[in-house]
Amino acid sequence: KQEVTQIPAALSVPEGENLVLNCSFTDSAIYNLQWFRQDPGKGLTSLLLIQSSQREQTSGRLNASLDKSSGRSTLYIAASQPGDSATYLCAVIVRQGAQKLVFGQGTRLTINP
Amino acid sequence: SAVISQKPSRDICQRGTSLTIQCQVDSQVTMMFWYRQQPGQSLTLIATANQGSEATYESGFVIDKFPISRPNLTFSTLTVSNMSPEDSSIYLCSVQDFNQPQHFGDGTRLSIL
Hints:
The complex is a heterodimer. By secondary structure, chain A is mainly beta. Chain A has no helices and eleven strands. Chain A has strands at residues 4-7, 10-14, 19-25, 32-38, 44-51, 56-59, 62-67, 72-77, 86-95, 100-103, 107-112. By secondary structure, chain B is mainly beta.
């Protein structure tokens, strides 16, 4: 059974810092990995999708890496801003077609002005 | 990406009652899914809503408790039946076109008294 773990559970940093969120999964037989953010009272916003053949994806100040063999992914946020405050969720895609996503419990990030 | 609307956005219900949650998409999509996010937990896939046929349920979820309908390519409903306090969760609808990332609605926040 695939299990996804995110560390730390919560993180508070001052504005402007670069930071790394970690995600690990127990079974390396995944198709893709996806990072989301969830704002309070809102649904999920997709940030980055890394296909299993890729090692990283970048979008603006966000960079996500994937190491399937070690069962790890990281989300790097550069020059953090208060608007980045949210819960960040990592999900591995374990089924193609009608995708099944297995989520971690998330990292609650607070950026202090 | 598709715009997903869920109704109601939140509700407080009495135990033993049932609630139907609606998910409406502004364009036709191939697949629709229902997830549950219990307090402090990660998202868990309940089922895939299949157009014109019975939903496909994940392990631990049954049709009697979570009946799902999908009459067309833009609409689905999830009913939470005979509710108990353990059903207090956020219920999220997501949509996907083949080989594309999933996109999520804002969710329905359900509390059972």
